Write the structure tokens for this entry.
Amino acid sequence: MPNFDVVADLRLRGLIHQTTDDAGLGPWLLQRSRTVYAGFDPTADSLHVGHLMALMILRRFQKAGHRPIALIGGATGMIGDPSGKSEERKLLSEERLRHNVRCVEQQLRRFLDFQGLANAALLLNNYDWMGRFGYLEFLREVGKHFPVNVMLTKDSIRRRLEQSDAGLSYTEFSYMLLQAYDFVHLFREYECELQVGGSDQWGNITAGIDLARRLHSVQLHGLTCPLLTKSDGGKMGKTESGALWLDPAKTSPYRFYQYWINVEDELVEKCLKYFTDLSVEEIDGVVSRHLAAPEQRLGQRTLAAELTRLVHGAEGLEAAERATEVLFGAPIERISPQELNEIFADVPSSTAARGLLEGEGMTLIDALCAAGLAKNKSDARRVIQQGGAYVNNVRVEDLNARLTARHLVGDAAVVLRAGKKRYALLRFDS
């Protein structure tokens, strides 16, 4: 049996945009454990932060005692969903699509429990049933149940048709049929009665509900969450380098952590409710303490820690926090070359021959000059004598100090500093 009212919880978190039954969905879900699904098209080899909304909703449903299905769009990914897009997606090769499916499957396993529970999650791929259809068979079995005039009223279709310069291909126009049939198939095989997704999926979700009613005279349900936006209305989860990915090879734990640590104050409460497992009561406490002393950024630090741990595990969080401490002056150790480059991406960099580190090594005076932190040797001596010289964030006051290979961070560079804020990387090529 369900152990709490998941709809009420989602409402408190601001995670409900639309439902097929605002008043009745909560009581219906409390009657018994239900099966609910969300779909994830493998358009890339990683999920991004935009997918977290639906993932966290599935996670909340599982915690409430319901069974979630994470559906990989191995078939729908070959077509491309026109919802929320101003132009047609580029079609992926089958080889690229299979690779993306494998990657996305591994990521989904981090967020849901797929074994050991009575309501263990299911991980399915819609290509397993869509791949069997011939074109004529699909038109006869599924297509005949879709009035074109109804399809044309769906927002995802209507908006694209209103853009005369872009239009809509028949391929994308057919996407709705595929997603609708997914819902019917999951109802037939797994008794799935509820689909969740972003607000841009409403037309696709209701198409599946209509198809189930026509084919089986049953009432299925839908629930959508709001789109992830910043206070200015722009999309959240975008960085200068692109999307905020969940794959550490595409967005490192440090970059991921830094994104959330720098979230605007007015977005902290919303993001804590959207993306963390903290209870609403715990979040209210964090927000209250944050508002009392916003300069301490407790809300951002809590959000960054909870999300980084969820997405990248305890080790990823530790690495991100260690790298962040380095940024604020902690001694530099156990930092990889990638982390070094990311932390000091905006710091001036110079190159010197690695041979200078052999034997007695390179004098710190010469290093400060080579890195551009001192105009000349006299200036370098003054910096050291006044206590303003740092090697890997450790102050050095010895005028005779030298750099050797042991000072290399990530076997690649030495981080030098003059004063509180003037950093430079001195890289040593072999």
Observations:
- The mean pLDDT is 89.
- The chain has 18 helices and 15 strands.
- The longest strand covers residues 422-429.
